[in-house]
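Last lecture ended with a question: if I hand you only a sequence, what can you say about the shape of the protein? Today we answer it with a concrete record. The protein is 3-hydroxyacyl-CoA dehyrogenase. Below, first the input exactly as provided, then the predicted structure, then a couple of comments.
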Amino acid sequence: MHLPWTPPTIGSRPLALLGAGVLGRRIACVFAAAGYNVNLRDPSLSAQQAAVDYVTQNLQTYSKLSKGNRSFGNCRAFSDLESTVRDAWLVIEAIPERIQMKIDIMSELDKLAPVDCILASNSSSFKSRFMVEKVGAHRRPLVCNMHFFMPPEKRAVELMTDGETRPEVFPFLTKILEDVGMVPVIARQESTGFVFNRLWAAIKREIIAILAEGVSEPKEIDKIWVEMFQNATGPCAFMDQVGLDTVAFIEDHYIKERQLSSTLGVDWLRKNYVNQGKLGNKSDKGGLYPPQTADDSSNSPTVYFLDIGLGSIVQDLSALGKTGRILRRTSDGKCETLITNLNCPDGLDYSPSVGRIFWTNMGLRPAANDGSVMSANLDGSDLQVVLPDGAVHTPKQLVVDETNQKLYFCDREGMRIHRCDFDGQNHEILVCRGKFGTEEQNDQTRWCVGITIDEKRGKFYWSQKGPSRSNQGRIFRANIKMPAGETATNRTDIETLFEGLPEPIDLEIHTETETLYWTDRGEHPYGNTLNQASVGAGVSHVKILARHFNELIGMKIDWANRQIYLTDLGGSLYRVDMDSASKTVLHSDEGSYTGITLCDRKTPFCTQCVQAGLLCEGYSRNHSVWINSTDGENRKYTKDTGSVQSRIRGAPEITLHQSLAGTAREVMYVGLYLSAFLPNGRLFSKEAAQISSAGWLRHLDKLCQPEKTLRFITLAHGLSMLATRDNDSQLKLKGVQAHSMALQEMSTALRDPQRVTGDGILAAIRLFRFYEVSCASREAGQVTHASQILYGAESSGSDKEKPILQIRGYYAHTDGEMALFMNRGWQKEWSEAGMYLLFILGVGRRKRSPFSDREWMLAPWKNRTKSLLDGLSDILVQVPALLEELDAIRACPIAEQSPNAWDNLLGECIRIEHLLHAWKETMGDQLQNFDHTKSGHPLQMPRLDRDFALLHISCLYWSCCILLYTTIHMATIEAHQSLSVTYFMTIPFSAPGYPNYHNERNPTLHTHRILHTISLSHGPYAGGYGALCSTFPLGMALRYFAVAHFFPHEGGIPGAHKLLQGLLAQPFMKAYTARFVSHLHNVDVPGQSLKDTAGWHGVELKMRRWWFGPMLDHNPGAT
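The predicted structure:
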């Protein structure tokens, strides 16, 4: 029988709190603000100081929780346990959730704490029963759980016995907790889940029963929950976030302990979700909610982030300073460690142009000058030192200036902003905020931490965080170009943008809107937040986008998907939607995460990595893929994570490089072509699609499944691109073989009534055509010409059964595609691309397009809502008819040329000119974005899909203007030669009803515009889309300058030739130029010897022939 218990006398005795982390310091502040003395213990001196600072700065706020006017208690910090608990009346442990650590600390407390001292655990995971195995029997009645949530916002505290706790302890603690403003709840019996988690478990259990009985669905349940309780997240969405396998696992414990029925609960959940792989947000199959859409998942970038190496995941403290890591999270949610043994890495960024990541290492001891900067390939290989240890003191956030290949980074204790080249050369100091090695170095208001740059406006921004949670943080701005005659120490262009911030850390800016984003590590409610504010003209207000992180540090923004990725020292990786502000935990463990960057590479040669020439993540696994080249039914791709156990017997095979296995598999599902083609490797956003549509590509993954031809030609693309990159003749041959197999499959498909009407065939032909332009080699040409006749050359019957032409390169594929277009009739996804294709084809052949015929002009196409490109295509398809009509007139001897023919041609030109200008009005000022005559030079490098769509449509418009106005000029001159001047002057260029567009009737002007944009189409974010879209406009520019002296113009030809020569000398243009010249060399010129058509002279001769063909037939010396 227990003797009556006497509560401990408090008086001036302290409450001891073990652990000065986020929650520990809050608990300390709760009691100190209510007048209780508090001893804090933490092995980290910096954590001690931060906790004391927090308590000191927030006493006034917390004092509002308790009743009456009170004097604040003292808060002291200690390193050793004995001094902390000496004379304590209550000890609360808030150390990491590791049961052995808690067992050991309770054993020490039993020995060191006063005999009347109560020992409480803040654990939410472990019953205190499991912590007292080394505690004496006399102390166990004074041990309990005291679980705080997150004061001051969440004031609930759960009290629970260890099985032996004296009942009188709970009224005593309840009174104390109520006195300090908490809301205590007593679990009078030991309970798995305490009180609240059991309530939550019951809610989950009942929700699962509602779903199992078919009463409601997740979306409706969350809807009513959010409405009734005003929560941001409903219970079904929350369970998906936690993971349904975890929900089931937790429920198993309740079932076992309380002997509950599992029929309409966890059994149903496992059968219908868990066992089917539907685990929630972490699963491709989704959970209670459907999985993310294909667009969303395909758009998810790869995340690279840093572990500083100081978290509880590190067991061997003697190894600190060599425990930093670089991790990578792929779009499928898998995390892996790439690089280890780093010395406290902090800032991280990625350069697409060189295909490398760059990061800073702070060094373990801030007092030591041992910081460094390093780089590596994206797969973690080829580590290089950019700046060695000691070249910088404590480097923090780092950002890449892609245009100038520079690195910008902050130096915290060094109080400086640095800049250097990618290789470490030209290392310079841009800003110096204090004198190194003096007392100024200890002034944390001078410490530079985060940085970002605005290349467009020539500015850079940085943060100076101030002491921990001091509300002394500031953000500054200065010019990238140092003011004349000034230095990093005395420069006068520094602006203070924001002051009084809790503790700002990393920065990023959206240059188009001049919106600055930053993380803040400071104290709640304004700290541990994600913030934004305008830094343009006018008054700026700070807006909090997301809150409640755990020591928030790193940030990187995915502008295309409008999502922000964040890391914190608490060991979590987050994603925040910029529009809804919803926050998702992508990864969480016991690490301590700092810097972060993104790479959108999901398959080889995607947009950011074209220039890098590197394979992407996940494609060096031990897979084997082969193609059996017998009959089409036996051909297949195989993925095998181990060794190949069996293959189809007796069949020749193509065995791919190990690194190609993942590539080939991904190619089947959107894969290489999609990622290589579209800007940033992503499907067009809705905004970009309204300008220039690429809708058919949205269905490529689905089309690959039923149509083998499409799979093989995509594989041919992958092989050929890799062969080009590696200069690998074996891969090139395999690409040719895959191409040949695709041709065979196409031949089979075109004889199959069901397959020939499928969209997969049209997609395959389109890729065939792109292959011929970008990948075809001399061997591929031989295979092509030796292949079977495609597109039904030997077919007979109705017109719908007569798509004709043998495969002979680009034009033959185009003919086949056009034949299928015409046979199938109008269809949205294909006709919109067909209009543009037919325009280019018609221009190349100087023949009118079928889509310019009346029956197609009146098709349903005319009545649908169109993108801006669709509207332009309606005009473009009419232009080749002008060329055909001009050639038809020229084909007649001058004496036989009819005045009406010239009149009709010029009248048709003017009609199309009016249509073009009407379309231009619908574009508004958008056409000026990439017009150097309007926006200046150099032009801004495009980054987003909308930019590339606008660049594409601008170049198409200018190309159309070149064709239209050269036709007008030619017709004017040639009509003047064959007709009287009097008649010619009656052509109504300025007649009533015909606006005067004289200023725009200069083909040279439009050609200049194109030449100034070509390099933008080959930038690091463009992908194949940019290169392919620039091909036709550049071809028109080359054609025009070959005969520019023939047309009226306003000077500028010599300068334009210089511009063109410089453009063609660029590395990205060499391959294109070679193909262009090679193509022209293969064009026969009647009446000319091979010698006469060799070299650039021959090229010019052939381009002139394109312009004046019929005239040269009558008079070879005419030009």
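Comments.
1. The chain has 33 helices and 34 strands.
2. The CA atoms of residues 261 and 872 lie 66 Å apart.
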